[in-house]
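> tool_call: predict_assembly(chains=two)
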Amino acid sequence: MLRYGFCAALLAFMAMAAFPERAWAQACCAGAGAVTPGRLAIHEDALVGLQFKVAHGFGSFSPTGAYVPSPPRTTEWELEQDLVAALRVLPRGQLALLVPVIQTYRRTPNQSEFGGGFGDVNFSARYDFTWAGEARYIPGIALLAGVTFPTGESIEQAENTLGTDATGVGTYQANLGLALEHIEGPWLFGVTGLVARRASRTVGNVTTLLAPQWTLLAATAYTFPNDAALAALVSYAVEGDPEVNGQKIESTRRMPLFGVAGVYPFTDQWRLQGGLYFNPPFSQLGRNTPALVEFVLSVLRSWS
Amino acid sequence: MRLALAFALLTACAASPPARVTTAERLEGTDGALHAVLPLDRDAYTVVIFFSADCHVLAAHDDRIRKLVADFAARRVRFLAVDPEVDANLARDRAQAEQRRYPFPVLLDRGGALARSLGATYASYTVVLDREGNVRYRGGIDSDRVHLRDDATPYLADALTDLLAGNEPRVAESKALGCALRLR
């Protein structure tokens, strides 16, 4: 159930994970670089890291947009540990890899269950045509692209009764995005637009094709003299009606997300990144989506 | 694949700065005087540090820069800071130079011509010029960025020591880890 919510949170965190470096008076590493949590700053050549996530589903948005809290005596928690790596392959181009391991705990009035395994591996690329801060009026402009491979276990492959061993969406997903960033003193402002397209899935004699998912994310970050940064973001994702066996089913989705994030560098090479994200539980903001709160913490080692 | 290789080559070539400075242009300094960038008669070398008033990476190196000046000024090495940013402001740079106790002027590189000719794209990027205008060292002041360590590699100090001893720098080019210069 949390899978799709996680996708939204993941996209948002990806976008948060790395504003480009500029200065104390120049915003830094805590902002918008969609498609991977490990975004290289302009002086960095490579990084590896571990990312830990904890998410709790506290409700959901109905097809009519009404917010409904989780029923009594039910709960859902998801844990995730990601291996993150990024490599600069061109002066302005970088590749990144995310390998997730996921565990889910689910409890209903009559049953509780815990399961997990490897999730869907994500491979992504970013090319900065211009860097924020390079020009007075031209923003940083970056093209983002990514592919998520169905390496996790989809819900129909799950063996546990409550599906807690499902760790993937069961199909390929391609992302394309455009990120704009502008630096003004210690502030960085970013807007990222993303579109995600999923391949169709066939289970038994039912073929499902999800509609493209469009996400718009706005973020701002403040950078301190020691390269630490604090950021806030808001994103909104929209997904049209899916098709089942070629027939459109009315089931549009709307996913709002708020978040705050930060980065604290211990040295020039080691930094800690974290964030708290949630789907605001207000009716009509969301539709056909779970409401989550998620905490993310990453430890990253970079090379320049 | 071929396209990627060609692109990488093109990018690398475009980023490669010339090895010589020929400009005789004089730049306005925060001390109110006009300064030539090439070494003066009494100097063996000029160290040009590219400056941005906003760059915290450069600010983190201020103590080390002052120490470099103290260590090498008496050995006929001249230090200059050059601000090539499009929104550079002499009054602001003067206040910064005073506040940061720079023992040298900050020069305004209006239009960023000098920065472009030396391949400077980051603040803290440093170039050592000999009297003929040849670039003898270019890159970072040292291997640190913001969190300074005692065991950092002092690229600039090593290059000056080697040059003053009549040798080629042991490392003639390094990576500047500073902030992007706002050149447009």
